[in-house]
């Protein structure tokens, strides 16, 4: 069986100091002579983004990312800062850049507070190459997989202000708060019926915001969880719903996505959408995606409970065999992290909360010092994956 897609990723990381507080020193790190260009600026001066190359196997992307993260470690040592794979927890805050005119335009639409809140989150964006013959099915598969992306990877049980009531504040902030009034721009959209639907949605998005600023175009108004990016390489789908996470967890989720997509393409699986809620089938001879209502229900459960939701775990369990069929032998080990999470029912967000609860931190809003402890805990998990 051949590999049908390539994948490359963008990883957003925060910088912290030795005590676990946010460090706004990204500009110094990025300007370092050791940066070969793969580390770039993000929305805050505390964030660094790593860009991988695209490869046909998950294993090759993993090796590329590990090598670059190890280089980032060496650069950061010179500035006494430390990368960590979490959003802002309330242990200090990053300085919002606001350097480009388009950022002011976003602020005009969303409001300054909401725009600033949006920049407190960090994630992983994965770019999967498009299959021209099955563009609509690819998009619909990504949509069906969406709740699992953050159920697996969530590292945001704590909000930027220390609140800690749900499993994934990051997705909740984007979909249920910032873009509540603009669902076309940042929420999960319905399944596509035909390729022309992509163009229609882009037109609607642009028209909705164009009256605010002439800077808005069909491509820069889209914060959707799944973006069709025709100008990247020969065309990619950008999946934006993964939390930033330890790479063993992140690559488990990416392997799930790639395995499912490649299995469907390689085996020529017919794909349709279920007529009845709470039903789905994932086999090499047919794929029946859950109804949009079911996907939205899974989204709510994944935001609130992560993999502690039996319904979400059952859904992941149903998809794993198809993912295995779509991956080459060298990529199969990356699914092991998902089996571990299935057995425990815990994702990284649960581990963060378990760490803090074990130390007697039980309030619904953590102090900056307690949030700094969470950062240091995740720093250790990050390092374990890098074998440093």
Helix content: 40-55%
Tell me about the biggest sheet?
7 strands, antiparallel
What is the mean pLDDT? 96
**Gross geometry:** globular
The secondary-structure class comes to: alpha+beta
Notes on the structure:
Helix 5 packs parallel to helix 10 (292-305). The protein has helices spanning 26-31, 58-77, 101-110, 112-118, 135-153, 169-178, 183-186, 196-210, 247-267, 292-305, 310-326, 336-344, 348-358, 368-386, and strands at residues 7-16, 39-41, 47-51, 82-84, 123-129, 226-229, 236-243, 271-273, 281-282, 287-289. The chain is globular. A hairpin with a 4-residue loop joins strand 9 and strand 10 (287-289). It has 14 helices and ten strands. Helices cover 47% and strands 12% of the residues.
Summarize the structure.
With 388 residues, this protein is α+β, with helices and mostly antiparallel strands. The chain is 47% helix and 12% strand.
What are the main properties of this structure?
single chain, 388 residues, alpha+beta
Spell out the blueprint of helices and strands.
Blueprint: E1 7-16, H1 26-31, E2 39-41, E3 47-51, H2 58-77, E4 82-84, H3 101-110, H4 112-118, E5 123-129, H5 135-153, H6 169-178, H7 183-186, H8 196-210, E6 226-229, E7 236-243, H9 247-267, E8 271-273, E9 281-282, E10 287-289, H10 292-305, H11 310-326, H12 336-344, H13 348-358, H14 368-386
Parallel strand pairs: 8-10
Antiparallel strand pairs: 1-3, 1-4, 1-5, 2-3, 5-7, 6-7, 9-10
